[in-house]
Amino acid sequence: MSPIVKLLAQRIALSLLLLLLISIVIFAGTIVLPGDVAQSILGQSATPEALANLRAELGVNDPPVQRYFAWLFGAMQGDLGTALTSGQDIAQALSSRFWNTLFLAFWAAVVAVPLAIFLGLLAVRFKDRWPDKMISAVTLASISIPEFLIGYVLMYFIAVQLRWFPSVAMVNDNMSLFEKLNAIALPIAVLTLVVLAHMMRMTRAAILNVMQSAYIETAELKGLNAFQVIYRHAFPNAIAPIVNVVMLNLAYLVVGVVVIEVVFVYPGMGQYLVDHVSKRDVPVVQACGLIFAAVYIGLNMIADIVAILSNPRLRHPK
Amino acid sequence: MNRHMQYLASQAAAGKLSRRDFLGKAAALGFTAVSANLLLSTAAKAAGPQKGGTIRLGLQGGSTTDSLDPALVTNTVGLMVTRLWGETLVELADDGGIEGKLAESYEASADAKTWTFKLRSGVTYSNGQSVTADDVVKTMERHSGEDTKSGALGIMRGIKDVRAEGDSVVFELDSPNADLPYLLADYHLIIQPNGGNDDPAAAIGTGPYIMKSSDMGVRFVAEKNPNYWGDLGNADTVEIIVINDDTARVAALQSGQVDVIDRVPPRTAKLVDRAPNITVHSTSAAGHYVFIMHCNTAPFDNNDVRMALKYGINRQEMVDKILNGYGTVGNDTPINASYPMYTELEQRQFDPDKAMHHLKKAGHDGSILLRTSDNSFPGAPDASALFQQSLSSAGIQLDVKREPNDGYWSEVWNAKPFCTSYWGGRPTQDQMFTTAYLSTADWNDTRFNNEQFDQMLVAARGELDVAKRTQMYADMSTILRDEGGLICPMFNDFVEATTDKVDGFVEGIPGQVLMNGYAASKLWVKA
Known about the structure:
The structure holds 2 protein chains of 2 kinds.
Chain A: H1 3-32, H2 37-42, H3 48-58, H4 64-76, H5 90-125, H6 130-144, H7 147-161, H8 177-183, H9 185-211, H10 214-221, H11 226-255, H12 258-263, H13 269-278, H14 282-309, H15 312-315
Helix pairs in contact in A: 1-14, 5-6, 5-9, 5-11, 6-9, 7-9, 9-11, 10-11, 11-14, 13-14
Chain B: H1 2-13, H2 19-28, H3 33-46, E1 54-59, H4 76-85, E2 90-92, E3 98-100, E4 103-108, E5 114-119, H5 133-144, H6 153-156, E6 159-165, E7 168-173, H7 180-184, E8 209-215, E9 219-224, E10 237-242, H8 246-254, E11 260-261, H9 266-274, E12 278-283, E13 288-293, H10 303-311, H11 315-321, E14 327-329, H12 352-362, E15 368-372, H13 380-392, E16 398-402, H14 408-412, E17 418-423, H15 429-436, H16 451-461, H17 466-483, E18 486-492, E19 494-499, E20 502-503, H18 519-522, E21 524-525
Parallel strand pairs in B: 1-10, 1-11, 15-16
Antiparallel strand pairs in B: 2-3, 4-5, 5-7, 6-7, 8-9, 9-10, 11-19, 12-19, 13-17, 13-18, 14-18, 20-21
Helix pairs in contact in B: 1-2, 1-3, 10-12, 16-17
C-alpha cells in the first residue's frame, strides 16, 4: 500500500473514531443536564397533573446505556428519533433547516473565501505599505466587533434607511433563487465580515513564510514579476495552512451562525437548536450536536486530506 | 359644492371612483390636492373596513417546538394563529361582556349551576363538516380528561358534566359559578371536529381563515375562509412571521416588511413612534410585574416584614424607569381597572418611615434575599436594584441574587421564598384569585392561606347580585393588599405598533394583547 493511501485511511478512521467518542460525550452531556423536560415544555403554566402526565408519556426513565445504543444505531440508519415537544420526526424537520443553513453558509463562503484569499495576496504584494495596512485594519476591526452589532448596524443603514435589502431573511420553497439571495444579502454580508480577517491574515502569513525560501529568490532572479512569483511558486506551497483555516471558517459558517440566524430571523439549524435547548428537547439537541460535530470533523478531515495531497513528499514517495 | 365633494370622496373610498379620477374632479371643483387627500383619508376611515390585501404581522414568542394543537398553546404567536383558524363557544366583547361565537345564546339556571349553550346553526368546519353539539362535548372532554396536557385544565376542573341536548350543550357544575362564560372564552377551548381527538394539530376549525402553511416558530400563512359565517376577516391573506429579537422586529416594521408588531420595547417605543409612517399603540392591561413572598416561610411569615417591604417600594419610580411610562402603578393586589366589578382602593405610597416602623415591630434582623432573572419580567434585575435602593433609605438591606433564565420557572418561581415574576391578566377577579390566591391553588405562588378569603371567593362565585359581588371583590382585594405576599408595583401596558399601510387598530378589550388576539382579522389594509 502506498503511504498516501495508508495516511488517508488512517485519517478517515481517526475521524470516525472521534465522531463516535463525541456521540458518547453528547449523549452523556445531555443526560446530566439539570432541569426537567416536562417542566420546560409546560413552562410557568405547569400543573402537577399535567407534569406527571407528560413525564410518563415522554418515557424519560429508561436506563441511559440502553438509550444510548438505541439512539446510536438509529442515528446510523438516519433515524434521529422524534422530537419530545412537537412529536415531529427529527430527521425530516432537521433536513430543511440543515439545507437552509448550508445554503447560507455556501453563499457566504462563495463571497468570503475568494475575497479573503485575494485580499491576502494583495496584502503580500504590497507588504507593509498602505494597502496592506488598510486591509489588515479593516478586516481586524470587523472581526473584533460582535457579529450581532454588525448585523444591527447593517440592518439600520441598509434595510431601514436605504431599503436596499430586507432586514428579515425569511426564505421559503416558493421563492426563486434570486429572491432567496436578495433575502439573505445582509446575513451574507455580516458573515463575510466576520470570517474575512482570519482567512486573510492566514493567507498573508503563510505566503510570507514561503516567500523567505531560496526558491522564491531564484524565481525573482529569473525575472518573474511579483504576482507571478506569488501565484506560481508561493501560493501552491502555502495551500495546506490556507485550506486549514478556510475549512475552519467554513465549519464556523455552518455551526456558529446561531446569533446571525436569530438577528435576521433566518430559519436555519441554529435557531432550531436554541429553541429545543430551552425546552430541554434532548433528542433534538443530540441530533443537532451530532450533525454539527460531523460537519466540523468532516471539514477538518478534508483540510487534512488536502494538506496530505498537496505535499509533494507524500505524493511522490521514494 | 362641499356636499358634492363628500359624495365623491365616499365613492372613491368605496372604490367606485379611482383615486386619480377623484383628485381630478376635486381639482375641477377648486379643491387643492392636499385638502382633497385629507378628505379622502377621512372618508376612508368612515367607510370602515376595506376588504382584500395581505396583512403581515411580526410577532414575538413563537418557537420551533410549538404545536398547532390549541390545548398546547402557550404564547402570543400560538394565540394569534389559533384565532385565525378556530373559534371558541363564546368570546369577550369589547365592552367587557360576553358575545356568542359558535354558541348563539346561553342561559344559566337560577343557582348558576346548570348552563345551556345553544349552538349557531349551519356553521361548518373548513373541511366541510357541520359543527355538532357532540363536537363541543368531545372538545370539553379532551381538555379536561385525566391525561390531558391542556393549558385549560385548571379552569375545566369545576365542570362536573357536559352533555349534548339537540343543538344545545349543557354544562353541570360542582358549585355555582356566575363566570362560566368567561371561562369558556379561554383561547385553548377551540371547538374541533370530534373534539380534536383524531388529529388535534390539524388546524381544522370554524375560524375566519384557513391555514395554508405552518412552519412552527418561523412563519404562518392563512387565507380567507370563503364559507365563514360571521363578518370577521378583512384581508385576503394573513402572514405571521416569528421575530423574537426586539431590534429585528422593530427594524422589520420600520423597513416595511411587516405591518404590525407586538411588544415594542418600552425603552425605544417613543423613538419608534416618531417615524411618520408608524403608530405606537399602548393598551392598558391586567398583566403585572411582581415581587412574590411566601407567606409561610420565615421571615415572610410575619406580616410586619411583608408590610415593611410593601412600604419600601417606590411604585411610580418603577413605572417611570422600568416601563418608561408605559404602565400604571400597582397596589399590591392583582386587580386593576381592567377588571369588571372593580373598586378603587386607597393607593399605597412609598413610605420609608412606615417601612422602618413595621420592620422594627417584626424584630427582623439582617438582610433579605431576593432572587431575580432577566426572563422573570423585562427589566427585572433593574427593578430589583431600584427596590434595593428604595429599601436602603428605610434602613432595610436587600441582597439581590441573579438566577439564570434557564430553569427559572422550575427552580426559583413557586419554589424559593422571595423572587421576581410576572402575571398575565385574567378576564375576571374570580379567575385571577382562583388561579393564584386560593389556598389550594396550584399556582398559589405566595403561599397565601386565608380561610376568610377562600370562603368569600366561593361565595362571590355563586353571587348573581352584581353590587354585592363588587363589594366582596373589594374586600378580598383589601385582604390581599394588607396581608398577602404579593408586592405589585406596576401593571405593564401592551405596547404594539402598526404602519400606515393598515388601519382599524382599536384598544379593544382592556388587558388583552393585540385586540384580544383578533388584530389579524379585524385590521384592514388601506386601499
